[in-house]
Amino acid sequence: MNAPRIPIALGAVARTLLVPLWARAEETRRADGVLRDPHADAIVRALDFDFALLREAQASQLGCCVRAALVDGWVRDFLTAHPAGTVIELGVGLNSRSERLDNGTARWIELDLPDVTALRARFFAPHERRTLVAASITDRASLDALRAHAAGPCMVVSEGVLVYLDAPSVRGVFEGLRAALPGASFVFDAMTPPVLRFQGAHDAMRHFEARFTWSVSHPRDVERFADGVSLERTHSFYDLLYAHPHRLPRWMRAAGPVVSRAWPAVRGCYTINLARLGPAR
Ligand SMILES: C[S@@+](CC[C@H](N)C(=O)[O-])C[C@H]1O[C@@H](n2cnc3c(N)ncnc32)[C@H](O)[C@@H]1O
Fold first, then answer.
1. Gap from CA of 224 to ligand 1 centroid (Å)
2. What is the CATH number of the domain that holds 241?
3. Which SS3 state, helix, strand or coil, does residue 82 take?
4. pLDDT digits over 137-184, tens only?
5. Bridge partners of residue 37, in order along the sequence
């Protein structure tokens, strides 16, 4: 007999974790996948949610995975340089990056809202190098507390998270992290204002209540958010996506090159970025 499926009791923003989770599960079933995540596949099968409603969201499915694969690469580089460092995943959702990349010596701190950590705890067991934190990143004291769990150099990752905050809260996250973890690297994604205006047409988000609320004209704008923050790398999501044109719906394959020639700024509409949170103290 099949085990009963696990119900999902999540708030509107927390529910968005289902999209990248589903995306990684789908990718794992492909022979030509850009990443493999057997945990995502197992979790999708266990949850009581009709993932079939996302089946048309081909671009988001690929998009979540090329983004995750890029970030996996940055985390891998960090762990090569600092094998006993700490990776802090803000808004971790049901991401199994620690399973994908653990090297046996790193520390992992995984933070999300309490409804998410309650669900996450059903699938991921803590261990002496992995800490699950139930908190909001808008709570300054929770960012300060990260320092106590961390050891050695830190890389902080927020993937698909800041875009759900308002502008003062995002600034507060940069200020709080800069103060708590000076010298750490910080991975974040950022949208420009037009993406927010056209989000009603988003292939996956139109099935969800949550809305993107934070945008910047250029990811470099975050350098003004806290003293000493510097943008070290920025990667175009468009370029990541269009590196796999055969995976995109036919209309996108045709329209993308035309639009990007007429409006080159489209390549910078959504970026995945790596910043340094000031010099280490
Ligand atoms: C689109 S999901 C991304 C999940 C995960 N990073 C991934 O890539 O699979 C957004 C996540 O951000 C979390 N989140 C949103 N606002 C948050 C906040 N204020 N504090 C902590 N987590 C938050 C949500 O609960 C959710 O898990």
1. 24
2. 3.40.50.150
3. coil
4. 999 999 999 999 999 999 999 999 999 999 999 999 999 999 999 999
5. none
Cβ-contact 264, 183 below 8 angstroms: no
Question: How many domains in the chain?
Answer: 1
45 occurs within a structural domain:
no
pTM of the model: 0.96
The verdict on residue 198 lying in a domain is: yes
- 17 C-alpha to center of ligand 1: Å? 6
Predicted pLDDT at 197: 85
Q: Is the beta carbon of 162 within 6 A of some atom in ligand 1?
A: no
Does residue 44 lie in a domain region?
Answer: no
The verdict on the CB of residue 136 being under 6 Å from ligand 1 is yes
Print the domain residue range for 178: 65-277
Residue 89 CA: nearest ligand 1 atom is: 6
In a domain, 5, yes or no: no
Of 160, 135, 138, 158, whose CA–CA distance to 210 is shortest? 160
112 lines ligand 1 (CB under 6 A): yes
Does 133 sit in the ligand 1 pocket, CB within 6 Å? no
Cα–Cα nearest to 185, from 102, 268, 75: 75
Q: What is the pLDDT of residues 138-150, one digit of tens each?
A: 999 999 999 999 9
Q: Which two tokens stand for residue 112?
A: 């999300």
Q: Does ligand 1 come within 6 angstroms of the Cβ of 17? A: yes
The CA distance from 274 to 281, in Å, is 20
